[in-house]
């Protein structure tokens, strides 16, 4: 045993002597050059390339690292046995990822690649404006040399696009508002956001299924139309105008569109915006894949129909000039004078001008209860591409409401009762909101809910019938009164509506009088 320890001590002494001799004969620079040469020789004979993607690039976060981590956790077949579970902020889904120093295999266009998640301890903390994590994380990609150009040109871009889709699908919708007008907060953002939890979908939306199908197909074509919009030279945006009586589901339609596409919603309050520059600032701070909503646009600011403003005056040009010079065109009320100064031109440029191209894949949705009050320039194609009329409750919409609130499937409703509903619905003119309220009251008793709803519809229809009869009689009386009060020239074919006379040249005389006054 003593001889064994003596031999081991002699061997250690020889190793120490050799190490000191190597350090003397081969300095560190020479050893580093030798290792570098050996590495190059290894790579020359190797059939693989290796790429390192670190978590932190200097002091900035590497976006490619996060995209790879999200992509691998959702799409790649995992070869390891240990996984890490994560749940991101504002996310409703739990994703899994690679554990430390684990590997997984992926296939792209028939090419197989190997990913390895490398985690090592950071040796020393260098000076930085923010503390770095104790662990140094990264991914190592191993590919064959012949597949280098395919991977670098297509595969990494594919990963980035896929990660963005996964992130948007897992992330909860956000609802933004401009409560501060166009002013910025401490982070430079004019919008405030809250999680968007509205449960409305196209399946629960009470409207004609044919119309819903057309809207869904149009939305799907828009979301998948990037190449189409680039080929045709159009900005990747689309406008929808929702109009109809209150309570017909315009807000629910917007929520269903957001949930269908997975877009965020920007609820733009025009009364909080004071100038066109603030409006442009808000537009520039919106993200792609979003819906920009202006509800009740006819009530937000003064954007009424210019034709009605200048109507009834023979000198149309003077009337139009007067309108453009008036405070209404500047968006300022005559009483306040110096308030909101958003112009119609500013709003049009917001929806269809050069500033509307600052971003892509955005939808503009305007809602109104009175479409006739809006200026025609705001309604043309290119600004509001699709006009959707939200009507009163129809029989197909009623069947959807009965399914939502009472659980009625197709064929569960008695044929005789269904026929009565069809007869009375159009006459009643009730909105889906009113019908829903009637069903909610008795949702525990289906038969009672159906009977009471039918009675409510009959009462509403009878009330509308009496109201229509009374308004018709009143209109006839007014017409007779106007006929008696209007002056007539004997033998003169005077027409009251257009102030013209076919026989005595009354219109010519009126035009001469106007010329004299001018």
Number of helical stretches of at least 4 residues: 18
Helix-and-strand structural type: alpha/beta
Fraction in helix: 40-55%
Principal-axis shape: elongated
First and last CA, distance: 132 Å
* Mean of all residue-level pLDDT scores: 77
Q: Quote the beta fraction.
A: 15-25%
Which sheet architecture does the biggest sheet show?
A: 7 strands, mixed
Widest sheet, order of strands: 11-10-13-14-15-12-16
Cα Rg:
36 Å
Name the poorly predicted regions: 310-338, 488-507
Per DSSP E runs of 2 or more residues, the count of β-strands stands at 18
Topology:
Blueprint: H1 2-25, H2 28-45, E1 48-54, E2 56-57, E3 60-61, H3 63-75, E4 77-78, E5 83-86, E6 95-98, E7 103-108, E8 111-121, E9 135-144, H4 148-170, E10 173-177, E11 192-196, H5 209-223, H6 226-232, E12 237-243, H7 250-261, E13 264-267, H8 276-284, E14 290-294, H9 297-300, H10 306-310, H11 316-325, H12 344-352, E15 362-368, H13 376-379, E16 386-389, H14 395-406, H15 415-428, H16 432-441, H17 446-485, E17 494-495, E18 500-501, H18 506-517
Parallel strand pairs: 10-13, 12-15, 12-16, 13-14, 14-15
Antiparallel strand pairs: 1-9, 2-3, 4-7, 5-6, 7-8, 8-9, 10-11, 17-18
Helix pairs in contact: 3-4, 14-16, 15-17, 16-17
């Amino acid at each position: 045993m003593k001889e064994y320890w003596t031999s081991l001590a002699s061997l250690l002494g020889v190793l120490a002597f050799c190490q000191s001799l190597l350090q003397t004969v081969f300095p560190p620079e020479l050893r580093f050059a030798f290792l570098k040469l050996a590495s190059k020789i290894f790579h020359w004979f190797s059939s693989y390339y290796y790429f390192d993607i670190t978590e932190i690039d200097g002091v900035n976060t590497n976006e490619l690292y996060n995209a790879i981590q999200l992509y691998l956790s959702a799409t790649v077949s995992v070869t390891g046995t240990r996984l890490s579970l994560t749940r991101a902020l504002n996310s409703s889904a739990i994703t899994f990822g690679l554990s430390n120093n684990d590997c997984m295999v992926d296939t792209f266009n028939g090419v197989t690649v190997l990913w390895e998640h490398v985690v090592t301890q950071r040796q020393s903390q260098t000076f930085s404006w923010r503390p770095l994590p104790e662990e140094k994380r990264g991914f190592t990609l191993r590919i064959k040399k012949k597949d280098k150009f395919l991977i670098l040109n297509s595969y990494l871009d594919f990963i980035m696009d896929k990660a963005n889709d996964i992130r948007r699908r897992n992330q909860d919708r956000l609802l933004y508002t401009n409560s501060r007008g166009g002013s910025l907060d401490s982070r430079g953002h004019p919008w405030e956001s809250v999680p968007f939890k509205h449960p409305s979908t196209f399946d629960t939306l009470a409207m004609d299924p044919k119309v819903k199908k057309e809207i869904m197909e149009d939305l799907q074509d828009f979301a998948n139309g990037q190449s189409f919009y680039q080929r045709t030279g159009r900005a990747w945006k689309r406008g929808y105008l929702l109009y109809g009586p209150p309570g017909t589901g315009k807000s629910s339609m917007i929520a269903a569109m957001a949930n269908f596409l997975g877009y965020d919603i920007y609820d733009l309050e025009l009364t909080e915006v004071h100038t066109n520059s603030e409006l442009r600032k808000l537009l520039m701070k919106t993200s792609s894949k979003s819906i920009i909503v202006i509800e009740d646009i006819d009530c937000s600011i003064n954007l009424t129909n210019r034709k009605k403003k200048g109507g009834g005056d023979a000198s149309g040009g003077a009337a139009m000039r007067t309108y453009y010079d008036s405070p209404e065109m500047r968006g300022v009320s005559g009483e306040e004078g110096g308030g909101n100064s958003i112009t119609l031109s500013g709003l049009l440029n917001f929806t269809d001008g050069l500033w509307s191209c600052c971003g892509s894949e955005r939808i503009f949705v305007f809602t109104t209860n009175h479409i006739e009050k809006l200026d025609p320039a705001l309604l043309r194609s290119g600004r509001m591409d699709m006009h959707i009329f939200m009507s009163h409750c129809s029989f197909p919409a009623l069947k959807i409401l009965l399914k939502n609130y009472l659980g009625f499937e197709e064929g569960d409703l008695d044929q005789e009762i269904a026929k009565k509903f069809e007869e009375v619905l159009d006459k009643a003119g009730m909105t889906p909101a009113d019908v829903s309220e009637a069903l909610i009251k008795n949702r525990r008793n289906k038969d009672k809910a159906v009977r009471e709803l039918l009675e409510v519809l009959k009462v509403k229809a009878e009330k509308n019938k009496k109201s229509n009869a009374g308004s018709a009689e009143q209109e006839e009386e007014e017409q007779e009164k106007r006929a008696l009060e209007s002056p007539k020239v004997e033998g003169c074919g005077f027409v009251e509506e257009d102030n013209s006379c076919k026989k005595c040249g009354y219109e010519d005389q009126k035009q001469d009088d106007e010329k004299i006054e001018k």
